[in-house]
Amino acid sequence: MNTHVKITDSASTDLSRRSFLVGSAATGLVLGYAAVPGIDQALAAPSVFEPSVWYSIGPDGLVTVTCGKADMGQHIASTMAQIVSEELGSSWKDMRVQLASNDPKFNDPVLGAQITGGSWSTMMNFDAMSRAGAAGRIALTEAAAASMAVPAGELVVRNSTVSHPKSKKSMSFADIVKSGKITKTFTPDELKAIKLKTPDQYTMVGVSVPQLDIPPKTNGAAKYGIDVMLPGMVYGKVVTPPPKRCRASSRRSRSTTRPAALPAGWWQ
């Protein structure tokens, strides 16, 4: 489970002036909308690079998608991964998912906050995640073209591999990331101008695939809110009157002192 972070005003994300960054480092490739203080330095310094946006590709070729939506049993993390994979051209076996922390950079691109409900998640994130995947594919393609000395327009991306049919050359996503040649950047306007696939071209969206969140949910590896343990943490309890339709006649001031009648670890 990702840890919560303390957000200060100086480190808050300006969602109205995002830019799309694609950068490479020895430890991986990070792609997504970003307006995060220090991200440029992180991309320029491989030794301290840590992915911090919508998805990353490691030197092992694994694609890790960070989902900013709450998982309430609807497999939304796998859905986000499917959308990214469609445009990225990755193999489903290489996809991984993780839930986002409370950092504002993971806010919904449309709502501007981490909100889950109303069956909005796919609808409101489809375009943003599709463009993130497409931008990654373009960046990988250009880097592969430079490495293989072939025209980028002649390359084909499929199953986490960029290939050149004419010369029969190919590079895996892992090879491209390790080459350190991915330096493509996109302005917001360039990102919006990317031509996405039409529904008749889909090979991943609308296809039944193994849900990535099921294994950890069934083998005990998944961490839920109830699994969180913090130093000095106590549990709250709502006190309700026995009869229905009762109104409180008085209000006790909030206190951090634990009543003796409650077991240790409880706060009333």
Description:
The protein is built from six helices and eleven strands. By secondary structure, the chain is an alpha+beta fold. The chain has one domain: Aldehyde Oxidoreductase, domain 4, CATH 3.30.365. Strands 5-4-3-2-1-9 form a six-stranded mixed β-sheet. Strands 6-7-8 form a three-stranded antiparallel β-sheet. Strands 10-11 form a two-stranded parallel sheet.
Topology:
Layout: E1 19-25, E2 28-34, H1 39-44, E3 55-57, E4 63-67, H2 76-88, E5 95-99, H3 121-148, E6 156-158, E7 161-164, E8 169-172, H4 173-179, E9 185-186, H5 188-193, H6 214-219, E10 235-236, E11 266-267
Parallel strand pairs: 4-5, 10-11
Antiparallel strand pairs: 1-2, 1-9, 2-3, 3-4, 6-7, 7-8
Helix pairs in contact: 2-3, 3-4
Quick recap of the structure?
Helices cover 25% and strands 16% of the residues.
**Tally of separate domains:** 1
Question: Ranges with pLDDT <50 over ≥5 residues?
Answer: 1-27, 33-52
Cα distance spanning the termini? 28 Å
Task: Report the top-level CATH class.
Answer: Alpha Beta
The biggest sheet, with number of strands, parallel, antiparallel or mixed sense and barrel status, is: 6 strands, mixed
Overall radius of gyration? 23 Å
Q: Kindly state the number of beta strands.
A: 11
CATH architecture: 2-Layer Sandwich
Counted by DSSP, the helix tally is: 6
The succession of helices and strands, N to C, reads: EEHEEHEHEEEHEHHEE
Classify the secondary structure makeup into a structural class. alpha+beta
